[in-house]
Design brief:
Order of helices and strands: EEEHEHHHEEEHHHEHEEHE
Number of helices: 9
Oligomer: single chain
Shape: globular
Helix content: 25-40%
Distance between the termini: 40 Å
Structural class: alpha+beta
Strand content: 25-35%
Length: about 300
């Protein structure tokens, strides 16, 4: 038996735009993803006997194939034709669930990344991205990490410069948001505001945190109903505490603020944590695998 340790880092949507509904029922998106230092940890015990098992102290999580990490492991063994192999996954869950931070996708991506490395790279980066995309739309970015402009369902990515010298304060309120419900509301709405994605790309390329911060925006905030007052309050509190900008990530309910240094982020987090206990400081992370499908 061989043991691998693999981190599963969360993501933030610095911007999120929904362009149109596709014939297959999915939506064409345009987003800027950022990998951050908040993470789960996985320990993979790989063995020469079939079977995928998951264990975790987080009892609210499923431990069967409805867990993305398990599905990713099974699909890897199937596609790599490694039917005689299996894995026991020990998951240390730290990332908030139903937060819009890609926690489940991060776990699945960590499994794919670790297994591909252990077995000597049976899949190219592009093949691994395609395999991940079959299971979850956020998995391709969680495999790659860094900073990226994503299009399509999120699988078409272009690497962008990482924002330097900054920190994020991430606040997860107690409520959750239904992703299908938000997409349905967006389909029925005439969206008035869209993020300035091109402007955000320019800000990243110029290294301007101030220009980046003022362009943070998530189109789902326009159709959010449940918890909207709380999201708006958190954003306001972050801005009052010195954030250069603030937005909801994914379909929520986590909200984040961009700060120009660690010190101001730590001070803001301390202040907000008196009201919202799930409040964390996070930093931008580099790529974990090199993107090779720029489009």
């Amino acid at each position: 038996m061989n043991v691998i340790q693999e981190p599963a880092y969360a993501k933030l949507n610095l911007s999120l735009d929904v362009l149109s509904r596709r014939p297959d029922g999915y939506h064409d998106m345009e987003m800027i993803f950022q990998l951050i230092s908040m993470k789960d940890d996985l320990e993979l015990h790989i063995h020469k006997s079939p079977g995928v098992r998951l264990s975790t102290a987080a009892r609210f999580l499923p431990m069967d194939d409805s867990n993305i990490a398990c599905r990713c492991a099974r699909r890897f063994f199937e596609e790599a034709k490694l039917a005689d192999w299996g894995v026991d996954i020990q998951l240390t869950k730290r990332l908030p669930v139903c937060a819009g931070m890609g926690g489940g996708s991060a776990d699945g991506a960590a499994v794919l990344r670790a297994l591909n490395r252990y077995f000597g790279g049976p899949f190219s980066v592009q093949q691994l991205l395609d395999l991940g995309a079959e299971i979850g739309a956020d998995i391709p970015f969680c495999l790659i990490g860094g900073t990226a402009l994503a299009r399509g369902k999120g699988e078409k990515m272009e690497a962008l410069p990482r924002p330097e010298g900054c920190a994020f304060v991430v606040v997860k309120p107690s409520f959750s948001v239904s992703t299908p419900e938000l997409f349905q509301k967006l389909d029925r709405s005439s969206v008035k505001l869209h993020p300035d994605t091109r402007g955000m790309v320019d800000a990243l390329e110029m290294g301007s945190l101030r220009e980046l911060g003022r362009r943070l925006y998530n189109v789902f905030e326009e159709v959010l109903t449940r918890g909207k007052d709380t999201v708006d309050e958190i954003k306001s509190r972050l801005l009052d505490a010195g954030a250069l900008g603030a937005a909801m990530t994914g379909t929520g309910s986590a909200v984040f603020g961009l700060f120009q240094d660690d010190g101001s982020a730590e001070t803001a987090c301390e202040a907000l944590s008196r009201q919202w206990t799930m409040c964390h400081v996070a930093r931008p992370m580099d790529e974990m695998m090199q993107i090779n499908n720029k489009t």
